[in-house]
Each structure stands twice: as structure tokens, then as C-alpha cells.
Amino acid sequence: MNEVLKNIRERRSIRKFTSEMPKQEDIDAIVEAGLYAPSGMGKQTSKIVVITNKEVRDHLSDMNRRIGGWDEGFDPFYGAPVVLLVLAEADEPNHVYDGALTMENLQLAASSLGLGSIWINRAKQEFESEEGKALLKDFGIEGNWEGIAHCVIGYPDGEKPEAAPRKPGRVVYVK
């Protein structure tokens, strides 16, 4: 089977990570894959914020936890040491789709390098808040950006989950 198709079929969301930091060259390769995601009219409206600083990572995790309504101590980033925050230019009509394509490239690239990843929501709510807007300012990011999602990455702690069976009736051929 073609390696790209094999990677697509075998990639899984990981919900438990070791604390070991991935190699910088792997992080950089994943980010580069995200930058090559398709975008509406080629406008490249998404931005990737690479967060390896544990204090900032933990702050984002706590913001996400509060928005999700979980108890204190729960980590919605599942212990992953790296957060790739995907933002997109909110004034562009395709920004959500562009950010989603960026996320998919990030996840496939991580899988191809033997790393685990998972898409974490609530970035929109995080960066609509005053706390989130202040963080973006601290990161040196100005303008009207919408949080699309977090791609958290790291080394899986445990076995890769099995794929759920594919639901029938999801393809219609019109010939």
C-alpha cells in the first residue's frame, strides 16, 4: 500500500503521552507540513504557534480545562509536551477550513514520524477571552485571529488504539 494512504489509515488520536520532548527536527518537520496545507484561494490564512514552554503549555491546558468544565487537575492535553496552536485570520471567509486542513497535515506528519497527536477543541473560546487575547499579545501576535484548534503532540504512552469500524453508507457514487 502507498505510504501516504497507509499513514492516513493507521493514524489514531492518542490520549496518553510520555513527558519526553520530541526532537526539535521532528517538531520543525511537522510544522512545515502544516504550512503546506491547502488553503482557500492560496491565501495561507492559518498561523501555527509552537508551544514547548511547560509553563505556557500548562496555562493553556488549564484555560481549556475550565472552558470544558472539567475538575481541577484534569489535563485536556493528556500530558503531551508540545502544543501546536492553530490560529486563522478571522476576517477571511475560508479561515476555519484553512485551519482544519492545517490541523490534518500536522496530525498526519506527526504520525508519519512515530509521534502521537490529538485534535483538541476550545481554542476559539480560549482566544476570544480577554485572557487569551492577552496571551496572543504576549506571543507578539496582533490582528483578528480565531483559535481553530490545538494539535498536541508527543510520544504515545501505551499501545495505539484500534480503528473503529467505518460506518456504512458514507459514500455515494454518481456516474
Topology:
Blueprint: H1 3-10, H2 24-35, E1 46-51, H3 54-68, E2 82-89, H4 95-112, E3 116-120, H5 123-128, H6 130-138, E4 145-154
Antiparallel strand pairs: 1-2, 2-4, 3-4
Helix pairs in contact: 2-4
Structure description:
The radius of gyration is 17 Å and the shape is globular. The relative contact order is 0.23. With 175 residues, it is of the alpha+beta class. It is 39% helix and 17% strand. The longest helix is centred in the middle third of the chain and has 18 residues, at 95-112. It starts with a helix and ends in a 21-residue tail after the last strand. The chain has helices at residues 3-10, 24-35, 54-68, 95-112, 123-128, 130-138, and strands at 46-51, 82-89, 116-120, 145-154. Strands 1-2-4-3 form a 4-stranded antiparallel β-sheet. It has one domain: NADH Oxidase. It is built from 6 helices and 4 strands.
Q: Using DSSP, what is the number of strands?
A: 4
Q: Cα distance, first to last residue? A: 27 Å
Low-confidence stretches: none
Measured on Cα atoms, how large is the radius of gyration? 17 Å
So how many helices?
6
The named CATH superfamily: NADH Oxidase
Number of domains: 1
CATH topology: NADH Oxidase
Give the structural class.
alpha+beta
Question: Helical percent range?
Answer: 25-40%
Would you tell me the overall average pLDDT? 97
CATH architecture: 3-Layer(aba) Sandwich
Order of helices and strands: HHEHEHEHHE
The top level CATH class name: Alpha Beta
Based on Cα principal axes, name the global outline: globular
Largest sheet: 4 strands, antiparallel
Spatial order of the strands in the main sheet? Answer: 1-2-4-3
Which percent range describes the beta-strand content?
A: 15-25%
